[in-house]
Amino acid sequence: MAYDGQSNAAICMEGGKCLDGTVLIQGSKNAALPVLAASVLIPDTCVFKNVPYITDIDCMKNLLKSTGAVLEERKETHMLRIHSENIREYRLPARYVSAMRSSVVLMGALLGRLGEALVDYPGGCVIGERPIDLHLFGLEKLGAQIWTDKNRIHAYADELKGALIKFPFPSVGATQNTILAAVTARGTTVIQNAAREPEVTALCDFLNKAGADIEIEHDFIATGRIVIHGVDISRLHGVEYTVIPDRIVAGTYMFAVLCAGGNITLENAPAAQLRSVCALIRKMGADVVLDDENDRILVSTDTKRKIRNVPFVETGVYPEFPTDLQSPLLASACVSKGTLILKERIFSSRFKVVEELVRMGADITALDHERVQVRGVAKLAGRTVIAQELRGGAALVIAGLAADGITTVTDTRYIKRGYQDIVGDLERLGARISYVD
Ligand code: EPZ
Hints:
Largest sheet: 4 strands, mixed
Bound molecules: ligand EPZ
Shape: globular
Strand order of the largest sheet: 22-24-1-25
Radius of gyration: 21 Å
Strand content: 25-35%
């Protein structure tokens, strides 16, 4: 059954087959969302390439249309043209905001373009509370006045003014929101302790291409410092921009090889952004070759026997081990030799997938609210399991590759939020997998 972003078809796979082959990594969800939001700032036409076909992007497209942008797309070429000459609506429809928390990043762009934004509180989700206090902190520092009631946030700014903004925590979304509001603010903004994720740098690259004036020093990872010199909105112009590859999708498939064994090549893979992941996977016994020049990563395990757990891993902010690969790591740890203690330091409850992995025969014990202990077992058993969120759902799919018999993952709508075609990708790598109604 071909990929259909709208259906909630289940994913069915038969485990036990090694992976072998090459797969092209899709455009990055977490890079595409903020740059599409940034188009609201630009009174011109932007052309985006390598935009992933995932439901979070569909949601962003609907949000952009609701502001008055006109979108044209050619699915076959993954190209999206956004005409933002006539952005006029600052109120975002609740149904799209509640469907995707990261829609809150549109606030900064709407403030920069229209001086006003009205957004529903994005609220928490299954991986934990998703407060936006740091977003509002940054916008208020730039001079926005913000009113909140139980479920809506109204931001208004006569004029945004450059400021010194020191984040107590390097929030990705809050950094992006603040950058978007600072682009056309009067004067200079200095952000300290900004998020260092590649999706922040990519946003700044896009904005500079469109006429913004943002400085990111070469030692940005060490300093976390971003300087934004405000420019008049008339300086901003349309650009043609290619979305960077998705490091989390690439990492997911790297852990798929640890689950199923085999030898794969990831094309268009952001090797330089996955150093912490590659270091861990090498320690677990796989061979990893990073070909930065050709954006290629080769991962192979000579036999599954060699894959073993490292004693302790904790998630952290970039460039530490990414929270979005915590569940895929967990899945591979279930069938690796030895014991892993895994600590989640970014989100307050990102272990929902544990209950489904245990149903497949995994030996996982919760040590406290932020740590689990995994003891590797020889085999998992195929089961029908339920995806409850995006990365946990992907983890169940790669766990199914290592399970005896048939695994069916239901509620795959969560997976389609971020994976363009996980079934097609894994099929291209030799997995026995398909969508089923
Ligand atoms: C982005 O979310 C990503 N989403 C997440 O990916 C990713 O896990 C996260 O960054 C961390 O890397 C997108 O880019 C669309 P944060 P974001 O603000 O911006 C707390 C995926 O699977 N916090 O860095 O929401 C927050 O509760 C998704 O693709 C505040 O307390 O991440 C969390 O515990 C999941 N106050 C921590 O910071 C705030 O105002 C990290 O959040 C904002 C955040």
